[in-house]
Amino acid sequence: MSAPPSAPRRRSERSRRAIYDAALSLVGEIGYPRTTIEGIAARAGVGKQTIYRWWSSKADVLLEAFLDLGDGPAPPALPDTGDLAADLKAVLRATVDTLRDPRFDTPARALAAEGVVDAELGRRVVAQLLQPSLQLYVDRLRAAQRAGDVRPGIDPRIALELFVSPLAQRWLQHTAPFSYEYTDTLVDYALYGLVPR
Amino acid sequence: MSAPPSAPRRRSERSRRAIYDAALSLVGEIGYPRTTIEGIAARAGVGKQTIYRWWSSKADVLLEAFLDLGDGPAPPALPDTGDLAADLKAVLRATVDTLRDPRFDTPARALAAEGVVDAELGRRVVAQLLQPSLQLYVDRLRAAQRAGDVRPGIDPRIALELFVSPLAQRWLQHTAPFSYEYTDTLVDYALYGLVPR
């Protein structure tokens, strides 16, 4: 068993959480370009040196705030009940719930928008936030290949895009509403194809 | 035969083209929020009243400039050789070429990024630029359904997202490079599915 955190450690944790909350709410309200370390510090009620002690840039603060939004480390794996379609549908339904939560939607949208025009930020968002999640789909699809549920020649990194990208795209571009029925349909189309069997 | 354009009409066309070019290059350089009618007018070498005579907002100018980028009205239909996979692969390869053209990429990226955070602009981009192109895929997939090449129960508006959205997503989010091989693979996976037949 680890020792309980000391009082100064607990104070640090409270500051850290206040800074995450300030960073996420601020970027959602005024966008990434106008968000500053000073603004985050003012809203969190800390000195800006407190922020610079832990992070070197606003991108660092924001990326870590997003990592923390999940309340802990990412799950190590997607569910594997042996029913690939059911497992993917469950995960995409949970993603629909997350995308509909304004606590996530507004700041994530601001960060995604900036990643579209700022290539360096885009690369960091992909490497630190997106790729670890996508790897879970790769792992699940590889397990399905071993079980004979996915064709052997399929590249899992491309295959996952058939259901993940349409949902992301509807979310980012407001092209059409999304629902559980929609994500279920994506999984069915991706797994069984469009042409008659 | 229609009469040749009069001299004043030709001058108008030259101004209009200069305004489109100025709007596209400016938004690519400084982003949508900082692009102004005044800035577009200055770069195009026209008075801002010339712009206000034809358009009521910078969004109007930009959306029309993009519509004009295709050099004329959109094609009325996707190719239909009777080979659905080949037709879709040809169209997506052409899309890869367009997305790699900096004349298109930079301003389109700026407009797409703003559409992510500005819901009203996002809706206009979708309705005026995106939806008409997507409708061509809907029409092609419906023709394939009539020919028995796509399962009857498939919703073409969702089906097209299996290959269109992954390409858009890789382009917008720099998640991974794209190539003809990649788009060919998307079409094959979407049409024939991931699970063994």
Automatic annotation (TrEMBL), chains A, B:
Keyword Cytoplasm included in the entry's annotation: no
Gene3D superfamilies annotated for this entry? Answer: Homeodomain-like, Tetracycline Repressor, domain 2
- Molecular function GO labels: DNA-binding transcription factor activity; transcription cis-regulatory region binding
Which keywords fit this entry according to its UniProt record?
DNA-binding, Transcription, Transcription regulation
Q: Which residues bind DNA?
A: 36-55
Pfam families xref list: TetR_C_11, TetR_N
Q: Which superkingdom is the protein from?
A: Bacteria
Tell whether DNA-binding is among the UniProt keywords: yes
InterPro entries linked: Homeodomain-like_sf, HTH-type_TetR-like_transc_reg, HTH_TetR, Tet_transcr_reg_TetR-rel_C_sf, TetR_C
Please state every residue range assigned to the domain named HTH tetR-type: 13-73
Instruction: State the protein's name.
Output: TetR family transcriptional regulator
